[in-house]
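2024-03-11 09:14:02 INFO receiving multi-entity request
2024-03-11 09:14:02 INFO entity count = two
2024-03-11 09:14:03 INFO echoing inputs for audit
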Amino acid sequence: MAILVTPETKILIQGITGSFGARHAQLSLDYGTQVVAGVTPGKGGQLFADKVPIFDTVEEAVKETGATVSVVFVPPPFAADAILEGVDAGVDLVVAITEGIPVNDMVKVKHAMRGTKTRLIGPNCPGVVTPGTGPNSHGGCRIGIAPGYIHKKGNVGVVSRSGTLTYEAVWQLTTRGYGQSTCVGIGGDPVNGTSHLDIIKMFNDDPETEAIIMIGEIGGTAEEEAAAWVKEHCKKPVAGFIAGATAPPGRRMGHAGAIVSGGKGTAAAKIQAMRDAGIAVAPTPADMADTLIKHWGKSARYDS
Amino acid sequence: MNIHEYQARELFAKFGVATQPGGVAFTPEEAEQVAAKLGGKIVVKAQIHAGGRGKGTFKNGFKGGVHLCDTPAEAREIASKMIGQVLVTHQTGPDGKEVGKVFVGEAVDIKRELYFAILLDRATAAPVVIASTEGGVDIESVAEKTPEKILRIGVDPALGLLPYQTRKIAVKLGLTGKLMSQATKLFTNLYKLFIDCDCSLVEINPLVVTAKDELLALDAKFGFDDNALYRQPEILAMRDKTEEDPREVAASEYALNYIGLDGNIACLVNGAGLAMATMDIIQYAGGSPANFLDVGGGATKDQVLAAFRIILGDKNVKGILVNIFGGIMDCNIIATGIVEAAKEIGLKIPLVVRLEGNNVEAGKKTLADSGLSLITADNILDAAQKIVAEVKKAA
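2024-03-11 09:21:47 INFO inference complete, emitting structure
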């Protein structure tokens, strides 16, 4: 069943005519994803790739196509507004790929979304992939910018703040014969829509997910909160990795959220919290899949 | 991005946050003029982006980056020993920072020292006010030893800091009577500054009560949200590139995300998380990373070339590790960029390249056929171990 999205999920893309949005819209179509609409104000009535209708507003796109998920590729100054437009249109899920949204804008978005039915993933994230059953996982639901072909349909749930580190973990799993139920990039910003913990709860309830990889990085306390919950409630084996053990305090490591300040958010504290929760922590990013496989004790043959 | 103390005072003045009178001086003569206008006892403070100035020492032997003086002539004399000189503090590292200007202010007779800060609380995704009666000292140790002395007030971003909240903070800080209206005004205006300027942090330490019962922000630390600088031209204009690592300034011109560190193994990686993890694995393998460098998801040949120049401009660098997971990006384009950069620059130190992902075979072939003496690796750990071994061998 996977989490958040299935191969049947209909998605729309806000910012489908920008170069970045267009490129990844095409890659999602190539992957076999149900991209049913695009939204670019002023370009309503046109077609993307000769087949996907473009609308002026998200509301129209939802009404005409039945899309339940919106992906935001809109530039930073306009992204917060785009997210709230998706919320207003009543989609179940907004995935914000945009990098560089001012944090004050996200503070407002987060508060405006309280009490609505929409979930936000991101911003500044690679998106969500539920792999398909075709060759190179074709036929799945690819939302965002992750490379589709590295995936394989299976039973490991992956959640991460970082893009390339997620790909690294997914590729390690796939090359060892282990597939994924769903892979979720929650993004590297300090204020985001969905936390590690939110996703781990979903994986715990998802019958298709049998084991979990959780990848974190320095900054904040989201990994510690997830670990505390895993210790008490998680029925499934979890392996983890934390990036940034060598990062100097007070320096922002690429992601706006990746900063150790005031003695908080260190890699050492996060790794300790994960170990205390019975999570197997990979000593290096090269061992993420192997650490899970050892902890899990399941052979790849069964999985494929 | 950081700003100078005198710039922080300019922002305070603009938003009506009370602070001591004073001004910036770029020459000893200007320092004398500012001091003459102020009259009375004067404080002269070296302006650099680092803490610990009072206890620092100049390379010319002059002690202390903060001095009290009695006359404008004395202010001029003190400024002449600071401007153009290099100040070393516990935060600057042994190389120190050259002082280009000083702040000249009215000396303040301090009765009480308090602490007041506004920052973003990630847990609630809203601003939070932190205040304490224990100002002028390291607030981390106050929080650790006497947590009951730390006051936290959460702010609803839709409502802002409300008047009753400012009164509550004032009372908890003992700012009653005549001081209360000064306090509520200062807190309200500071919150406005925090929001309007897209700050990630405004910290006043100390916030002081003077002998004349005035409430003044005596020293401040600002943090700004880099993502919002596009709409903060006034803040952006305060950027002082001479205070920044020249390697980081060069990198930002090519939209590369670079942070210089003290080690000798440089790394070039795509993606911030993977770049951090690559630094970690260099240390795991027994080496020491020279930098964080994220070339982003769609690096061009020019960016790769610029990245190599910046890396090789660091004299400490004895080896380079390139770690690319080309998801969408074609590994062969990266490989071609590496080869061209290495040839153009004339690489004389060991280079280990680990490529994985899209079109990786063609990329590996490009590297192999290049005639360069680079070493390839199959995974990140293998790559880190190889570059650490090469650097040790060369030493």
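2024-03-11 09:21:48 INFO post-check: Chain A is about 35% helix and 20% strand.
2024-03-11 09:21:48 INFO post-check: Residues 19-31 of chain A form the longest helix (13 residues).
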